[in-house]
């Protein structure tokens, strides 16, 4: 079927709740950064608000709901489905005849409809991550970060990002921060809002740098600079805090370079590590002469705060 005007296609992926973090990692590897929980092809008129959340809508359409990816290109979704069908057994994600479906969403306003699936992300009483259509004044959190989900890359929905933000709140934010693999710039923005006086956001992907710069401008935060280069080529060597939210394999490869760029009293925040890899990662950090100060776990993921021995 050819792509038609005003028609969007929906790829639904039915998996258990425990497998959704693994799916998010697979989608990230495949370059898919935007997905939602629950279809927009549903009726939420009767939903009730409980503590600012449409609880009935959440229970019916979000909890235990499929992971949804939208595209106007049906062939792209078919190709993506084939890739996931190949990868699921390798990731030990159950696969059956009802795991996937593709259907058209014949709604001329679908590009607006999917917004209902993106809920604000609240990190305690301190940080609210909001899409641009939400009114920041409604939220009581001290810091508001505006991130457009349609811009791709990190939107704060993934547990690895939330782990970083929670650990950042546990710290007295130092003056000089390095954000390695900045993506959307969400962690660099948070560091600036939490009090850092100098933030260097680094990435090797020019699209990430472009989007991060747009997000920084949209959030009107100062003190953030950008570098499009490998971390080894960064001149400054005296950062008080380095943050890296990257998958564990490439993360291990750059940890020695990260250590070279923090001061003797500096700290390193590392995320993107599966809980199943945690013990192995502890040994790796100790071999690199890093002292583990704190470990935080959320779902299938964990994050570390370390310092130099």
What does this 3D model show about the protein?
With 309 residues, the protein is α/β, with parallel strands linked by helices. The chain has two domains: 8-117, Alpha-Beta Plaits (2-Layer Sandwich); 121-308, Vaccinia Virus protein VP39 (Rossmann fold, 3-Layer(aba) Sandwich). It is 31% helix and 28% strand. The chain is built from nine helices and 16 strands. The protein has helices at 20-29, 55-62, 74-90, 110-113, 159-170, 186-193, 206-219, 248-260, 278-287; strands at 8-13, 36-37, 49-50, 53-54, 67-71, 100-105, 121-123, 127-130, 143-146, 176-180, 198-203, 224-228, 239-245, 262-274, 290-298, 301-308. It has a seven-stranded mixed beta sheet, with helices on both faces. The longest helix is centred in the N-terminal third of the chain and has 17 residues, at 74-90. It is globular, with a radius of gyration of 20 Å. The N and C termini lie far apart (60 Å). 35% of the residues are buried. Residues 39-58 have low confidence and may be disordered. One of its GO terms (cellular component) is ribosome. It comes from Spirobacillus cienkowskii. Keywords: Cytoplasm, Methyltransferase, Ribonucleoprotein, Ribosomal protein, S-adenosyl-L-methionine, Transferase.
